[in-house]
Amino acid sequence: MKALLSFALVCTFFSMSSFTVVNHRTHKVLKAPLTISSWPLTGDVQTSQGIMTYSISGSGQIPSSITFYNSSNVSVGSYGFTATGNSVYLATGMKASLNISGVQLGIYTNQAGYTLDFYSPY
């Protein structure tokens, strides 16, 4: 048993002696603001008038307005975005006609793409 322990310690010493410290090269990561690749952003959302198509227009990473269209592709209303924080924009005013309290568009540097939130009063 004593010989086995000695042999195990010698093997461990030789296996550990081959390890070397690896110097990782570090790179400075520069966070650049993300831009939305193409405008308009479009999609569908459920409203009090049924499912509507929305279209968000803008330039670079700043949205300007959101327009809602009914199933006949007729504009129901257009609402402007205002900046509410760092790369966060909010459009309001559609509560009476669509039962949507607001639409928030966030463009964040720590994730790819954007977030789009529709707020309901319910």
Question: What is the strand and helix layout of this fold?
Answer:
Elements: H1 2-17, E1 41-47, E2 50-59, E3 62-69, E4 75-85, E5 88-92, H2 95-98, E6 102-106, E7 115-119
Can you tag this structure with a few keywords?
single chain, 7-stranded antiparallel beta sheet, 122 residues, alpha+beta
Termini separation (Å)?
Answer: 74 Å
Q: What about the largest sheet?
A: 7 strands, antiparallel
* Overall geometry: rod-shaped
Mean pLDDT: 81
- Fraction in helix: 10-25%
Order of helices and strands: HEEEEEHEE
Total strand segments: 7
How would you classify the helix and strand content by structural class?
alpha+beta
Summarize the structure in words.
This protein has two helices and seven strands; from the N terminus they run αβββββαββ. The protein is α+β, with helices and mostly antiparallel strands and 122 residues long. It has a domain at 41-119. The model is unreliable at 24-33 (pLDDT under 50).
Structure, briefly:
The protein is an alpha+beta fold.
